[in-house]
Design goal:
- Helix 1 packs across helix 2, helix 2 crosses helix 5 and helix 4 packs across helix 5.
- By secondary structure, this protein is α+β, with helices and mostly antiparallel strands.
- The N and C termini lie far apart (52 Å).
- The mean pLDDT is 92.
- The protein has a three-stranded antiparallel beta sheet with strand order 1-2-3.
- Helix content is 44%, strand content 21%.
- It has one domain: Sufe protein. Chain: A.
- It is globular, with a radius of gyration of 14 Å.
- 37% of the residues are buried.
Length: 131
């Protein structure tokens, strides 16, 4: 028997946070899984906190995928909004799974996509800054 989704997963799926696009993002990431067909786009805007550290001031996502893909995308945006770039880079799939109260094993790959999309957006931002 499959493990059902947690209440928190269903809450994020039914009412995703930070859904949409950011016009002229400072960083953009797109990832997908050809096996399941899920695709995620992550957009970030970077600012500075009171200490002058670079932070993710705003973050949005668009996801074409299942319940877990949408829930993981949504919670990742909540987890990193307002965090420093350095701290955001350290988030892992385990942080996402824990934050959602678990995921069925067959859906864990969705949490990887959400983190991969975030890290791709951060890499894109760093590449743009170097130019």
């Amino acid at each position: 028997m499959k493990k059902p989704y947690s209440k928190k997963v269903m809450k994020y799926f039914k009412n995703p946070h930070n859904f949409g696009r950011i016009k002229n993002p400072d960083g953009f990431g797109k990832v997908g899984n050809p096996i399941c067909g899920d695709v995620m786009w992550m957009y970030i805007k970077v600012g500075k906190n009171k200490r002058g550290e670079k932070i993710i001031k705003n973050v949005k996502f668009e996801t074409f995928g299942c319940v877990a893909a949408i829930a993981t995308s949504s919670i990742v945006t909540d987890m990193v909004k307002g965090k420093t770039i350095k701290k955001a880079e350290k988030f892992t799939k385990d942080d996402v799974i824990k934050g959602l109260g678990g995921l069925p094993q067959i859906k864990v790959h969705c949490s990887l996509l959400a983190i991969d999309a975030l890290h791709a957006a951060i890499r894109d931002y760093k590449k743009r800054v170097k130019k």
